[in-house]
Amino acid sequence: MITGSRKLPLQHITIRVPWHDGGWNGRVCSAPSANTACLALTRIAAGKRADQDDHAGLMFEDLQSSVMPPCIDERVSFMANHDLILRKQHPYKISSPETHGHFGETTLRLEAFSAACIPFGWMLKSNVEGDEEAGLKGKAGALRLAYEHEREPELSFETGWVQDKTNQLIMLDTFFGALKPEESLCFFYAKKTPLSESSGRVIIGAARVKGVGNHTEYAYDGPGQLEGVLWERCVRHSLRPDGADGFLMPYYDVQAAAAASPEIDVEKCVAFAPDDQFESFSYGAEHLDHDGAIASLLSCAAAIRACAQVIEIDVSGVLAWIDREIARLWTTRGVHPGLGSALTAFGLEHGTLLAHEIVRAGSKDGEVFDAFSFIDAFATSPGSFPQAEVYGFGSSYRQKWMGLAKSRRQLLDLVARCSLSVEQATRAYQPSQRTFSQATSDAEILGNPYLLFERDEGAADPIKFATIDRGIFPPGAVREVAPLAPGIGMSDGIDRRRVRALVTYLLEGAVQTEGHTLLPRSWVVRRALEATLDPGCAVDEDVLDMAASYLAETLEAAKTSEGESALKLRRYGVAKAAISSAVRKRVEGKKHSLSYKWRLKVNAALPEMNEGPDAATEELARQEKTAALEQLVTGRFTALVGPAGSGKTTLLKVICDLPEIAAGQVLLLAPTGKARVRLEEATGRLGEGMTLAQFLQQRQRYDGASGRYFRNPDAPREKGYRSVIVDECSMLTEDQLAALIDAIEGVDRLILVGDPRQLPPIGAGRPFVDICRHLAPDQAVPIFPKVAPGYAELTVIGRQRGQDRGDVLLARQFSGEPLDAGADEVWDALKFGNLSHVRTVRWGLPSELEPALARELVRGLGLTDGADQKGFELSIGGSEWEGHVLFWPRRAGAKVGGAAASSHDWQILSPVRAGLSGVEAVNLVVQRRFRSKVRERAQSKGAKYPKPAGPQGVLWGDKVINLRNNGRRRTYPQQERPYVANGDIGIVVGGYRTANMKFRPKDLEVEFASQPGIKFTYYASEFSGEEGTPELELAYALTVHKTQGSQFGKSFLIVPRNCRPLSRELLYTAITRHREELVVLHEDELGTLRRYSDPSASEIARRMTDLFSDPGPVQVTTSSGPRFLDRHLVHRTSRGEFVQSKSELAIAEKLHAMGVPYVYEKPIVLGGTMRWPDFTIADDESGITYYWEHLGMLSDPQYVKRWEKKRAAYLAAGIRPIEEKSGGDVLVETRELPGAGLDMGEVERLVKLIRG
């Protein structure tokens, strides 16, 4: 090791590898173009070739260097059984020949079964040097290395990487010097895989480190001032195909099984890196401490057991290896894995470094090391460890240590037993630094160490349950050496403190990943038993009963509609009380006395009515708008519901323009920036709206660092608005709505606007759905208009979109609403291309998607051909000037124009991010096809705009999306309160080098559609580094979730086969994003879409919430496997079938009760068209088949028209009404009566006629 580096105690290493489809075996992928997961790595995304499939399956050693795929530099060959030779060029040789031109081609030998590791986090200057102004200490200072900033050369360009050779060796030697052959483990992981949509790191395999190669100095073509070394060092490992000393996860076998059986949930078989080890699984290669290694192995063991449930595999050998290593790691880990952070929290500037020295000096192989006993010894006898003085542990600190009160020493010991960060340890140990959800004393923490987890949820880096659990439950060897003090330690795995913390952890996970705000106790038990813990926590009903009173201190009891006990987090009990109370009191409260001729107000806001075929429909639309307007104005609370085009925003403008309401001020809110702009435009109040995050952050109820919304009764409330309107409320979580209600006061009317048929929010609950269900008129008794206290629903689509447009009819199939009897005509029309405003295109093979999409973009955007880059750039907001396309923001004072104004003219949608059909791959495909000329110029030295930025290579003129709420970006013109919201879409309009600029711009400037004329700066540094997470991504293709709240001219929807995220609500949301045309690019048969119209495909019904009523979980079997639904959100017969409405349910139950066998929605061909009668009843004795159609309420002229067409087809097929005794097949019709619903007496009469 070079002088000035430091020998650190033993560490393990994480090694990032790209996803590979053939076992990382030294060959090119068998289908390179189909592997899109590897594109998450910048070097691969930038260097993957268009002709990559020409080399599929070839050995890397047989390839010329000119066609070597970029993944070879990303350790893709770590399982190769032979050496490989790589020839490396310094990355700055070409771009900066004056400083690096003398660096020559350098040979790097990759040994068999090794990985060339680069610890990028240790070579990043900001990490190494820290930031003195921000109070952040770098690695060099924290470890007191001989790194010197002054040695770094002055270059003609900016770089964030360490450049001096000596500095490089100091950092690299220190990093690799902590790896000990045979004792250090290596964990291979991937940043992205086709196995999961999650952003978590996926562990690929684990093994033992066998050796570390020496550094390689660059070759030089001639003399030069600078010298350097290759950052790669080969780490040899013990992993072999036979799995004798390590293992690869059996992901390929799981993928194959899932392809044959789509009901397999692949994600359950994935070993994710532990939540509290994200930084350790970053930067290409990084240290992993013993605690992290134990947690990682436990994650692998749980995933391997899950794999064994779906594939035939012998896992005994792998599990035995994991068990042996965990046992060894516990001994090596010692008593205090968090010693460095604890000593820093204690007050020592170099606590981490001192901890390294203590472990190095005091630990012995094969023995559990008690660091506190060691410190006691040298605190009493300083001469036994003189190094302590060097690292700041002088006489004053010795005195402080020896004088610690018993409780303070116990707390410091507890903190050191948990592998916490310095910031977490400081919050835990120093009372003045605690930012817990409630005041917490030392005594309380010692009485229940899990409070460190339970009360830290508001932090940007909250302390994890598993971190505390490992500290409290080490194995017997550790407990024998240094047992926790009585009252702190726990005698068994079901201590009530642990049980409560585990249940809290499970409930938090259910909120974040599934949207549940409560879990039935039986679910809690099952999930507790499945939790990755050592020792396990054997929770059962008896244990929950035993701990009931203790659980009740922080959790709330709930129940299902069947009476089963359930549990929920306290904050959702508070949210339920706040939301339900506000809604109930406002709905039941005193109405406002405002009175207008409401119909005249509606007529004035709409074009003049004309006589014609649509006049009757238009009259219905105005009737319901009139009733809705009165409710909105006079009510204290109203949920305004309706699909796109039904006229919701028309009514909002009428309300905002009423003098009495305008005088009291109107607050306009929306979850996203684009939805805010649409609301402002619709109401004529540009610039007056806010996103919910903006509003709540100003009122201390939103934390941008953690993204958390919360109630804060102690903070000031907003009292300046008498009316509050919130749009796109289907996106609101219970946290957001509860925080909003807590933040406002003196409000006369609260109006929540949205479409509850869309996707539920990402997060807790589905409050808008629950509110609508609570307030809506009973479906069993049809009324028109659908207006009730607190509720107004618009059902008639306006003339502009058209009530009978094909896309509107298709969307209704996925709305979950009762459909008219003739609505099933949509499926054959879709199949044969006869559905207006909808176009369908089949792609049968993955390789067919790109050309199919390109053809549709050419057609839909009016391009000349697939190479028409100029036409494409004009379609996204470019302006033609002297034969070139330029991208400019809107000019100051202009009302129109600007590149971003066209950003919503068209949009590609996909349900997923990963895979060839996911947005990550599609974005790169579109950019490479239609922006390749700009990319070529951007990569040249004379370009006028920035280089490609980030992993995706974002270019000047690209369509992009902002990924995080941010109120601190630089803007031009300068804004007093600059704010860009998560989900805002715009165009990169800068930088662009103009005549008065000396240098080429480095930073990107974006004009967003939500804020025309304003350029937001995204610094080049945000896109640099191996683990940069830029807040900007390409947006040619977006997930359906990301487009919620937006409208586009044309939509291109990609629908892959066997896609788990597909749901009824996702398709409904996707199909309602466009105004002009929808193009569906489908991999499977079009008919398979129909299964997602079934109630069992509902995402909303999967959520368990109890805002107004208790949930009723019922397990059902679907094409994606078994799942639980809330029985109150679906209509399920006693035979287990799902039907569309309460009336159909009533008919089905009557048929069943009276012994008449039936088939629900059995297809029949009528007049050459496939139709689906509600019930088909075949009478074997008479040979007569009865087709029962329930017509619902025939008040809509278009409904009547469609039914008459279908009825005529029945008659033409010889199927006569039941009243006509023809001797042939029979048509049975039932209707609903306004205000009365279905006549069950008539149903019984008809059943008797059928039965005979």
TrEMBL record:
Organism: Mesorhizobium plurifarium
Listed name of the protein: Putative Viral (Superfamily 1) RNA helicase
InterPro entries (alphabetical): AAA+_ATPase, Coronavir_polyprotein_1ab, P-loop_NTPase, UvrD-like_helicase_C
Superkingdom of this protein's organism: Bacteria
PANTHER family cross-referenced by the UniProt entry: DNA HELICASE B (PTHR43788:SF6), DNA2/NAM7 HELICASE FAMILY MEMBER (PTHR43788)
Pfam families: AAA_30, UvrD_C_2
Domain AAA+ ATPase: 634-794
GO molecular function: ATP binding; DNA helicase activity
UniProt entry keywords in alphabetical sequence: ATP-binding, Helicase, Hydrolase, Nucleotide-binding
Organism lineage string: Bacteria, Pseudomonadati, Pseudomonadota, Alphaproteobacteria, Hyphomicrobiales
